[in-house]
Amino acid sequence: MSQNISWIVRTYRVLALGVIPALLVGALLVLFVEISPERRARAWAALRGDPGATGEETRRLERRRLELTDGNRRLADGAAAREAELRRREMMAEALLARALASQAAAPAPAAPVHGEEFEANVDLLNRLEPATAAGLIKSWDDPAVGAYVRAMKPARAAEIVNRLAADPDFKDRLPRILGTAHERKP
Question: In the list 17, 131, 136, 141, which could disulfide-bond 145, CB 3.0-4.6 Å?
């Protein structure tokens, strides 16, 4: 029985010293302090876990949503226009490239210089290139120019390039003429 009484005393103490004064202070604040009904409603809603929004905030948020939606639409329209312009430019570039390649294929290969500073620079370059790359470059030149370059190159490098050219079936028929002109011409 004494345990029941002590439990009742402890509960009364908690209520008398904690909860009841807090409720009295809250009631006094509500009665004597100016709290707008809108703010009071938001406070109660927040205590219930629903912060809610006032009419003014709702209108502001709706305006902001409309602004963002409009901005997103304008950005999407601009991106679509830029993408269409990019596609148009790519098509123009492809057409120009095709036209340039067609005219380049139709035009005769330019003759390589066979004397002067450019000739010496080209010989140095051909000596440094891989034999397959150098043979690919030389293939499009006319026979006298190929002969002059082969004769001016380092003998070991020239032999490697001539071997590559001899392996090419399109170039094989030109090789005897070139080697014959290589011995005849001197820069």
Answer: 141
Average per-residue pLDDT for the chain: 79
Rounded Cα–Cα distance for residues 135 and 129 (Å): 9
Q: Is 174 exposed, middle or buried (0-12, 13-18, 19+ CB in 10 A)?
A: middle
Q: Evaluate whether 162 touches 153 at the Cβ level (below 8 Å).
A: no
**What is the C-alpha to C-alpha distance for residues 27 and 20, in angstroms, rounded to an integer?**
11
- Which of 144, 154, 156, 136 is CA-nearest to residue 187? 144
Q: Which secondary structure element, helix H or strand E, spans residue 122, and what is its range?
A: helix 117-128
Q: Specify whether the CB–CB gap between 120 and 148 falls below 8 A.
A: no
CA–CA separation, 116 and 88 (whole Å): 45
Q: Answer whether 178's CB lies under 8 Å from 150's CB.
A: yes
Rounded to two decimals, the pTM is 0.38
* Helices 155-167 and 131-138, axial angle in degrees (round to 10): 70
Q: What pLDDT, on a 0 to 100 scale, did the predictor assign at position 185?
A: 44
CB-based contact 55:61 (threshold 8 Å): no
Residue 182 CB neighbours (<10 A): 20
Instruction: Check residues 84 and 172 and name the one with the higher pLDDT.
Output: 84
